[in-house]
Amino acid sequence: KKYPITIGLILICIIVYVISVFIYGPSMDAQQGLHFGAYNPLFVFWNHDYYRLLTANFVHFGLLHIIVNCYSLYGLGIFVESVLKMKRYLIVIICSALATSGLPYLLYLFNGFEVNVVSGGISGVIFGIIGALGALAIVYKDVFLSIFKQLMPNVLAMLAISFLVPSISLSGHVAGLIGGFVSTYFILNKKKKNQESGARKMGLMTFKGGVHP
Predict the structure, then answer these.
(1) HSE (CB half, 13 Å, CA atoms) of 166?
(2) Which of 9, 92, 159, 173 is most enclosed, with most CB atoms within 10 A?
(3) What gap in Å lies between CA 3 and CA 77, rounded to an integer?
(4) What are the angstrom distances between the C-alpha of 206 and each of 114, 197, 198?
(5) Does residue 187 surpass a pLDDT of 90?
(6) How many CA atoms lie within 13 A of 13 on its CB side?
(7) How many CA atoms lie within 13 A of 25 on its CB side?
(8) CA nearest to 167, candidates 54, 21, 30
(9) Please, what is the average pLDDT of the chain?
(10) What ranges in the chain are assigned the alpha helix state H?
(11) Distance (Å, rounded) from C-alpha 143 to C-alpha 127?
(12) Contact predicate 147/129, CB 8 Å
């Protein structure tokens, strides 16, 4: 009840994985992943399978893959969800999920980027949540900046692993990070402007009340 979005995402990932286990066994190859909704730019372009930009986030290729991702999602997600609240957090999650495959797809349209890559997993959304923390650190500083500084070594290590291990999607992680940061930064700035506008109106009302009791 406290973290419906984060827990809901984890449950969807688990349900999808359990179904895939019944169909393909505990791990899937690239072809099986495609049948199950994973992302590949050719399938999106030629077949117009735009749903893959979203469904790919819930497709996991093995037990270790889903355990690591769900554990990371729980640890980071419940904190950011409690800060942003459900509506804003949901917007950030959707933007991160779509950016994870959406930005690489735009690169494919531009220069044929990763034409043979099949990808899936919620890790792009996890990076989006990290991006959201980065936006919180920039806009509000204080405790958020401290938390983000503590996370930075882990984030850099994760990006390094994404770069060094061919089977891990560096583009998906970076794209999710960008999606989470940009959407959160926009949301927070809009919120601050609304608060400042509200404060100015309250000040004007107080001033008028003082002049005309």
Answers:
(1) 3
(2) 92
(3) 8
(4) 60, 14, 12
(5) yes
(6) 30
(7) 4
(8) 30
(9) 89
(10) 4-24, 30-35, 41-47, 52-55, 63-111, 123-140, 142-164, 170-211
(11) 20
(12) no
Burial state string for 16-47 with b = 16 or more CB within 10 A and e = fewer than 16? bbeebeeebeeebeeebbbebbbbbbebbeee
Length of the chain: 213
Q: pLDDT per residue over 145-183, tens digit each?
A: 888 888 888 777 877 776 666 677 889 999 999 999 999
Residues 40 and 56: their CA atoms lie apart, in Å, by 9
Output the pLDDT for position 161: 74
Residue carrying structure tokens 């984030």 = 155
What letters, b where the CB count within 10 A reaches 16 and e where it falls short, cover 75-101? ebbebbbebbeeebbeebbbbbbbbbb
DSSP string, 150-190: HHHHHHHHHHHHHHH-TTS-HHHHHHHHHHHHHHHHHHHHH
Count of other CB atoms within 10 angstroms of residue 159:
16
